[in-house]
Amino acid sequence: MTLPTSPGSSEDRSGTRRPSLRRLLPSSAGLVIGLLFALPLWWVLAGSLRPGDQVLAQLSELSWRSFVPTDLTFANYTALLDDGFGRAVLNSVFVAAVTVVVGLLISAAAAFAFAVFEFPGRGVLFAVVLLSFMIPFDAVAIPLSSLFRAWDLQNTYAGLILPGIGNGLAIFLLRQFFLAIPRELVEAARIDGLGWWGVFRRIHLPLSRPALIGAGLMLFLFQWQSFMWPLLIGTEPDKQLGPIALGNLQGQLVVDHGQIFAASVVLIVIPLVILLRLQRHFTRSIATSGLK
Q1: Is 76:262 a contact under the CB 8 Å cutoff?
Q2: Is the pTM of this model over 0.85?
C-alpha cells in the first residue's frame, strides 16, 4: 500500500520522502537573504571588539579575519562609559518608555472614540489623523522647536517626550482593531450597567493586546531612532539622547571607529531584543488592521 505524499515533497525508490525543489528554493533564497542582512551587523559587532585603529585595517584584503576579531578587546565599551554615552542611553530608554506609556493611553482613548462614538465631524477629524502620519515629522520639526523654546521646554524631558505621544498611525491601527470587536459585546456590557470607561478598560483594552503591543513598538521606535528633534531640543549634555551622543563620538580631527561601532551595537541591540520578543504580536496587529 502506497501512502500519499504531501504536495511539497517527493518520494524516492526507498520510500524516503524528500523535499521538492518547489519548497527548497524559497527556503534557500530566504536563508541567503537573511545572511546578507546579518552580515553587515556581524561586521559592526566584530569591529566593536577590535582596537580603534584596527577596525578598517582588515578591509584591504577581504578574508575571514574581516569578520572575526583576532585581537578581541572590550576597551571600546568601557570607554563609552567614561564619555557619558551611558547617560545618553538611559535618557533614550526613559524618554521612549514614558512615550510608550502616555502615548498608548492617549492613542487608545482617541481610537476608542473614533471606533465607538458617533459625533459630528468624526470623518473630518479622522482624516486629519491620517494626514498627520503622512507628513514627515522632520518637515515640521524646526517651526515646532521654535514654539517649544518659547514655552521654555528646551532641554527638558517634557520637550523631548511630547511630540511622540500623539501618533496618528498608532491611532489608526488601534481604531481598526477596535472596529473588529463585536458590537453586541459592547451593547451587552452597557445593558449590564457598565459605563463607557468600563467598556474601554474591561473589554477593548484586554481584547486588543496585539494592537497595543504593535502601537507601543511604533511609539518606541519613533523616539529611539529620532535624531533631528533631540538635536534641536536636547542641547545640554545631560539631556542628550543616544543618537546624538553617537554623532558626537566623531571628532573633527580624530575618529575612533571602535567606539563608534560599539555605540552603534548598543543602540541596535536594545530595540532588536524588544522586536524579536514581540514580533508575533506586532505582525498580528498589522494583519488585523484591515479587517474593517
Answers
A1: yes
A2: no
